[in-house]
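hey so u asked for the seq, here:
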Amino acid sequence: MTSGLWELVLTGIWTTVQLLVLSALLATAVSFAVGMARTHRLWIVRFLAGFYTEVFRGTSALIMIFWVFFVLPLAFGWQLVPMWAGTLALGLTYGAYGAEIVRGALNAVDPAQREGGIALSFTPWQRMRKILLPQAVPEMIPPFSNLLVELLKGTALVSVMGMGDLAFSGNLVRLALQESARIYTYVLLIYFVIAFLLTRLMRGLEHRLKAGAGRAASGPAALSLRRTGTTTVGGGLS
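ran it, structure tokens below
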């Protein structure tokens, strides 16, 4: 390939990375907000969070991109640039899947931990921040790693808007050179390398968080919480 075509591919890689980072940040924020809302004590909050989750899990990410980019301007007069339209559509869609990861991890925490926090007169937010999330977040990392790779592959959908991501740039190079096998092999390898780096990064984050959770579990506050949960909660059950 000529230098101009390589520059086109590199520009596409950079656009894909930008879209991945922005949509991943949005999806993470949505995941934690909706996931924690699904464990809320008020039924209306749980209902609204569940409604959002079911709607966005049950719709196609491709159709959502079409809707945000083509329908939203006609319906409300808001025209988003392709980068922000792709970020919004992908972030909201994959955030719905991430919300179920957060909800499952929070519900998997030992109920005695919640009861111990209640015995220590922690507010719901304090129990969430100091007890539940430190134990649940390390368990979220492996499924979040898979979801991040799925999000990376989902970024190729934005090419339908004419956005110059890796998939769109690869197709332009293919049309210029008329070499489908070689060009798409390169594109596959680039996606694989990015996904491999993401999984390595997430695995390192998982080890670090689990090590931090182990150190926190041996601190004075954790010992007090376990002592309270054992004597007060456990004693009440017995």
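The first helix runs from residue 3 to 37. Confidence is low (pLDDT under 50) at residues 217-238.
lmk if thats what u needed
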